[in-house]
Design brief:
The protein is α/β, with parallel strands linked by helices. The chain has nine helices and eight strands. The chain is about 40% helix and about 15% strand. β4, α6 and β5 form a beta-alpha-beta unit. It starts with 7 loop residues before the first strand and ends in a 5-residue tail after the last helix. Pathway: Organic acid metabolism; glycolate biosynthesis; glycolate from 2-phosphoglycolate: step 1/1.
């Protein structure tokens, strides 16, 4: 399959560009414990992320991928507020970029590709995360989990990008680490590159049938014919 037609590359954030689980786990653990619920570990939270903060905190309270129906909407809302407070207080000090991220984004930008960020992370946290890691100059569009009504795997954000930039679906590539990213790409009719090192609820990302599977973000450069 040729990727020569690609003009816009949309990236997921958590698990793709940034290992944010340590900060997310700390905030989730503090939130659930402050409400009298059992502690959650980093490994648990790693399996819970990817579908937005509401599901993350619901899963953390439930200690399960399925949110317990016994949790009231009021409790879930309070837990989400606490999670947001603790996450903001942490100032993302435990998060770090995966290898080669900044270099790859710089090379793609220099080569003339339009780069966009499409994440299920709450929008209010995204600008500070990008600024902290000096990624804020690379993206023409930054779409958070509450920018539109629907999050990934719904294709709403990707379809918006296609419309805004007047592109065919064959001209956009989605780069992510979870089945939500791959399904969003499929639902938008565009191609996908899946990274093996991120968060995918403990499942091999290849099971989601992306168009390309990579162990390193550097593989993307060769895929779209960018030379170092």
């Amino acid at each position: 399959m040729s990727f020569d037609s690609i003009k816009l590359i949309a990236f997921d954030l958590d698990g793709t560009l940034l290992d944010s689980v340590p900060d997310l786990a700390e905030a989730a653990d503090k939130a659930v414990q402050s409400l009298g619920y059992p502690s959650v570990s980093l490994e648990q939270v790693k399996s819970y992320v990817g579908n937005g903060a509401d599901l993350l905190i619901g899963r953390s309270l439930s200690q399960n991928m399925q949110v317990s129906p016994e949790l009231s909407p009021e409790l879930l809302a309070k837990a989400r507020c606490l999670f947001d407070e603790y996450y903001a207080q942490g100032e993302h000090r435990l998060s770090h970029l995966y290898p080669h991220v900044k270099a790859v984004l710089a090379q793609l930008h220099q080569a003339g590709f339009k780069l966009a960020l499409v994440t299920n992370k709450p929008s209010k946290f995204v600008p500070e995360v990008l600024a902290k890691h000096a990624l804020d100059t690379y993206f023409v569009d930054v779409i958070g989990g509450d920018t539109f009504v629907n999050k990934k795997p719904d294709p709403e954000a990707l379809n918006w990008l296609l419309d805004k930039h007047d592109l065919e679906s064959s001209e956009m590539l989605m780069v992510g680490d979870s089945k939500n990213d791959i399904l969003a790409a499929k639902n938008a009719g565009c191609r996908s590159l899946a990274l093996t090192y991120g968060y995918n609820h403990g499942e091999p990302i290849a099971n989601s049938n992306p168009d390309y599977v990579a162990d390193s973000l550097r593989d993307l450069l060769e895929l779209v014919s960018v030379t170092a």
